Amino acid sequence: MNQKKVIGVYTTALKDGTPSYRASITYSGKHIALGSYDNIGKASKAYKEAAKILADSSFSVESYKSSMSLSFDKVVTLVNFRDKGMYISTPIYLEKKYFLYYLSPSKPLKFDIEDLFYYSSHKIMQRGSHLFVADYGSQVSILQRYGIKSYAVEGRDYRFANDDPTDLRYENIIILNRYRGVRQYAEKGFLKYKAVIHIKSNYVVGSYNTEAEAAIAYNKAADILIKNGISKNFQLNYVEDLSASQYADIYMKLKISPKIYELR
């Protein structure tokens, strides 16, 4: 095969001198890099696959095969560019009022369109059930964008309105507990909040009428335990919408379970 005449492929070299073959294609005036390959045949195959996708509207994301030279992410990018006229480097397919971010051919995540800018420049990664992005050098859980803390438990601290954990539109995420050590529950048809603190096992601090009171009760219990000599790095709650004097007033008035004072 005459390498110089292979359409859409040009030859380069790695730092150690090993030949590398880069595939690319131009569509609607945009030059699109398709990937680098260790042999010219794979690179040529990637170019032909891309040309077919861009020319054939019947080729969908679901048409992807693992035997293809193109990566799955690149296939999604090309299909979206062909159908929607917008080139996005991450595996996103635009819908009218939301978009799909494909983790795999069988697992698209659904997001509100207002999150498009963020996820078009942040690649979602997965470790087990944990979904995160690299942001400013740190791994950031995508749930943090909804105010869901790292210690939160689905079903206890938050839930999905339609029971679909892949639907990450704001309207589908219901925050039950915003604070550490706070549990929401119903009593006689009314919502109440229980504060629970962990020292080897869980201890109930008390039950309260508001979420803020339970969060402050957790903080107060942590302060008491530290004064009693328990060595633990308790993560305290920051309670929003309260001035320092309002916080102090609630802190002083809250009753704490006597068992907390007895723990050593």
**Unreliable stretches:** none
Our Rg estimate from Cα atoms comes to 27 Å
Biggest sheet, open or closed, and with what strands and sense?
3 strands, antiparallel
Proportion of residues in β-strands: 25-35%
Count of distinct strands: 14
Could you give the order of strands across the largest sheet? 1-2-3
The DSSP helix count reads 6
Oligomer: single chain
**Element-level helix/strand string:** EEEHHEEEHEEEEEEEEHHH
Class computed from helices, strands and strand pairing = alpha+beta
Query: What is the share of helical residues?
Result: 25-40%
Euclidean distance between termini CA atoms: 78 Å
Shape annotation: elongated
Q: Mean pLDDT score, rounded?
A: 93
Describe the 3D structure.
With about 260 residues, this protein is of the alpha+beta class. Among the domains are: about 1-70, GCC-box Binding Domain (2-Layer Sandwich); about 180-260, no CATH class. It contains six helices and 14 strands. Strands 1-2-3 form a three-stranded antiparallel β-sheet, covered by helices on one side. α1 (about 40-55) packs parallel to α2.
